[in-house]
Amino acid sequence: MTRILVTGGAGFLGSHLCERLLEAGHEVLCVDNFYTGARRNVAHLLGNPNFELMRHDVTFPLFVEVDEIYNLACPASPIHYQHDPVQTTKTSVHGAINMLGLAKRRRAKIFQASTSEVYGDPAIHPQIESYWGNVNPIGIRSCYDEGKRCAETLFFDYHRQNGLRIKVARIFNTYGPRMHPNDGRVVSNFVVQALKGEPITLYGEGLQTRSFCYVDDMVEGFIRLMNTGDNVTGPVNLGNPGEFTIRALAEMVVAQTGSRSTITYLPLPSDDPRQRRPDISLARETLDGWQPTIDLEQGLARTIAYFDGLLKSGAA
Ligand code: NAD
Ligand code: UDP
């Protein structure tokens, strides 16, 4: 049995990953400081004897005995990572140093949840892994973007210097059940607004684009990447190449919820990337033909059903 550490395991992606790893028969140690995650995301796993939940902040060292590490700890939504930007950079950088140190002591394989934000406001489209990005180092998104870029640097230096087995995934926008209802990300915002019949908040003219991957497809990509041979380090793009304007997303959410919500236009936040779409050729080649299987319409239907239940239960 493999003993696996998931940092940020009580968050949106982390909780789905813990679930999948337990289903595969592994022991899972979930570490989280509950900054944006919640115990309720993993409450259904607490009775499983192979699951353990530990409150811990990854900016401090951690001494545990594990064979594999998935490092997901980091707030992911702009309003959360901009709330305490110094802590965001510390989480990415000190967190990476601490988890890499743990991996080095244990000779454990380690996965990093990096991001499409390393490409910034990309000057090439779609984005390929060899592109170095177009990132503002001093803007309001920099704590996240530069923190994640520095974490990638640390991963590759530990790999070169200490022979560590690393797996770096560049994750593009992912959505699904257990996103925080108030975390400000576009899919959760629009779905919750539509279900409540409130105005849909479209930033700018809504012509900026994103590519949305359903959580189950993403988690499948994580596990396949972790299980590749030692020669595979990444970075590997993981995401759904279907590209939509944010306005089109708003219209889809209104149509699928049958909502009477209208669209309200708000100012575009600074440094908001204008377009984003992953080139997933490398993932397809390296991860045994991996590619998303759930399109936006299907994924939205499941996400809408989740938030509908949450709102009706009074939990949001
Ligand atoms: P999330 O906010 O739901 O999860 C992050 C988790 O990390 C939360 O449970 C939070 O409490 C925990 N955390 C934050 N700081 C911590 C710290 N210092 N110590 C311990 N735990 C801490 O976000 P998510 O969408 O599940 O994202 C998970 C990871 O994937 C993040 O690293 C994020 O940057 C990355 N990612 C996500 C997306 C996406 O679209 N969801 C896109 C790109 C990258
Ligand atoms: N966005 C929007 N309305 C919202 C929330 C987000 O129009 O209520 C836009 C935002 O400006 C961005 C896109 O949706 O262009 C995706 O935003 P999100 O915060 O989900 O992710 P990121 O910008 O990090 O890709």
Please, could you describe this protein's structure?
With 316 residues, this protein is of the alpha/beta class. The chain has a domain of 220 residues: 3-Layer(aba) Sandwich (Rossmann fold), CATH 3.40.50. 37% of the residues lie in helices and 17% in strands. The chain contains 9 helices and 13 strands. The strands form 4 sheets. It has a 7-stranded parallel β-sheet with strand order 3-2-1-4-5-6-11, sandwiched between helices. α4 links the parallel β5 and β6. The model has no long low-confidence stretch (mean pLDDT 97). Nicotinamide-adenine-dinucleotide (NAD) binds next to α1, α3 and β5.
Helix content class? 25-40%
The class by helix and strand makeup works out as alpha/beta
CATH class of the domain at 3-178 and 214-239 and 276-293: Alpha Beta
Q: How can the largest sheet be summarized?
A: 7 strands, parallel
What is the CA-based Rg, rounded? 19 Å
The secondary-structure element order is EHEEEHHEHEEHEEEHEEHEHH
Cofactors, ions, other ligands? nicotinamide-adenine-dinucleotide, uridine-5'-diphosphate
Number of strands: 13
Distance between the termini: 38 Å
In the CATH classification, which architecture of the domain at 3-178 and 214-239 and 276-293 applies? 3-Layer(aba) Sandwich
Supply database-style keywords.
alpha/beta; Rossmann fold; 316 residues; binds uridine-5'-diphosphate
Layout of secondary structure:
Blueprint: E1 3-7, H1 12-23, E2 27-32, E3 51-55, E4 68-71, H2 78-81, H3 85-106, E5 109-115, H4 142-162, E6 166-171, E7 174-175, H5 186-196, E8 200-203, E9 209-211, E10 213-214, H6 215-226, E11 236-238, E12 243-245, H7 246-257, E13 263-266, H8 281-286, H9 296-312
Parallel strand pairs: 1-2, 1-4, 2-3, 4-5, 5-6, 6-11, 7-10, 8-13
Antiparallel strand pairs: 9-12
Helix pairs in contact: 1-6, 3-4, 5-7, 5-9, 7-9
The protein binds nicotinamide-adenine-dinucleotide (NAD) and uridine-5'-diphosphate.
